[in-house]
Design goal:
This protein is of the alpha+beta class and 131 residues long. It has helices at residues 2-19, 74-81, 87-92, and strands at residues 20-27, 31-37, 41-47, 54-61, 65-71, 95-96, 98-103, 107-111, 114-118, 121-127. The chain is elongated, with a radius of gyration of 18 Å.
Length: 131
């Protein structure tokens, strides 16, 4: 009976380790470790400094940041893509280990359990390893 309980505990622990994604957050003023999980998601919010329109980028957390989507107005989409490609389709295919943003006006990033706001500075969130 004890052996079955131990095996079950080890299995649960192994599953949690596989789902866990340690990440490092760096801003101009701090560096800290984040605990992220595969089922979580994130969101980046800012105002485009040229079009003055809001932009929201959403994504999922897995072995990498992936499944990006962008919500903004048509003029801002045109600004980013120069009319050469479908911006929403292009970002949906992206995946990356690192998110890096700088903003003078301000940017809010929600990743997993954490919400970070930076104004007149930069922030970077990097998944430390993938399994």
């Amino acid at each position: 009976m004890l052996k079955k309980g131990l095996i079950a505990s080890v299995a649960v622990l192994a599953l949690l380790v596989l789902m866990f994604r340690p990440a490092l957050l760096k801003t101009d003023t701090q560096t800290r470790l984040l605990a992220l999980f595969r089922w979580q998601s994130g969101e980046i919010k800012f105002v485009n400094s040229v079009t003055q329109r809001p932009v929201v980028i959403r994504f999922n957390i897995g072995s990498r940041f992936h499944n990006f989507s962008i919500l903004t107005d048509e003029a801002t989409e045109e600004y980013y893509s120069h009319g050469l490609y479908d911006l929403k389709r292009a970002v949906s295919k992206d995946s990356t280990m690192t998110l890096k943003f700088c903003s003078m006006k301000g940017i809010s990033v929600t990743v997993g359990f954490y919400r970070i706001h930076v104004q007149d500075g930069c922030l970077e969130v990097s998944i430390l390893w993938k399994i």
